[in-house]
């Protein structure tokens, strides 16, 4: 098994995820989580690694706030789009781009980073525990990993509501390789166990798209993106909704203090 390179799917991601209601919900919840994380990190500006960062929507927003970003990705096409996005936003001076894997990033850092973004990548890598360990190593003591992963429970519920029982009988095995459906949906219990085994301390969790993917067309006027996001924010940190989100965001911290370096 190999980690997924998205050169062949970059355009699909741009059209089907980043610019849709799904993408707006993802961005809203992720920014809510980051607004909690960033004040807990004393360094200003922060040194941030965006591992598997794609087109860099979140990291370019952080660069606009003056933080220093290293964005890495296996896909040359994703990196090209990320650089174009950074230039268009006028934040290129605060961003670096490298075509490397998350596992290799430690070889390219002179000092540990304050914050690692690892969003919608874990479900595409063949050896998740090794990747999480590598990210643990590049964080400074007291640093934070912002992890968002594709939730097996959310996929199972969605598949059930669609009546796609044949897909469940094959244990959610993909028939086509060139799709946006992740290769390795993750069981949250496994992810939490892997994180704790690395040495991370789990601080908070949030579900992303905890209900909107299951909505039927409403009677009367369709719901606006703003209304949907409002309700997603209301329920995303409550069980049982949190654990049924299509994605789950986990904030985890590396124990220790920066002055221990």
Output the keywords:
alpha/beta; 37% helix; 261 residues; single chain; globular
Reconstruct the topology from this structure.
Layout: H1 10-18, H2 21-37, E1 47-51, H3 57-64, E2 68-72, H4 76-89, E3 95-98, E4 113-119, H5 128-138, E5 139-150, H6 152-161, H7 165-169, H8 188-198, E6 201-208, H9 225-235, E7 247-253
Parallel strand pairs: 1-2, 1-4, 2-3, 4-5
Antiparallel strand pairs: 5-7, 6-7
Structure description:
This protein is an alpha/beta fold and 261 residues long. Helices cover 37% and strands 18% of the residues. The protein has helices at 10-18, 21-37, 57-64, 76-89, 128-138, 152-161, 165-169, 188-198, 225-235; strands at 47-51, 68-72, 95-98, 113-119, 139-150, 201-208, 247-253. Helix 5 links the parallel strand 4 (113-119) and strand 5 (139-150). The protein starts with 9 loop residues before the first helix and ends in an 8-residue tail after the last strand. Residues 4-10 have low confidence and may be disordered.
Q: How would you describe the oligomerization state of the chains in this entry?
A: single chain
Main pleated-sheet profile: 7 strands, mixed
The termini sit apart by: 36 Å
Mean pLDDT equals 89
Uncertain stretches: 4-10
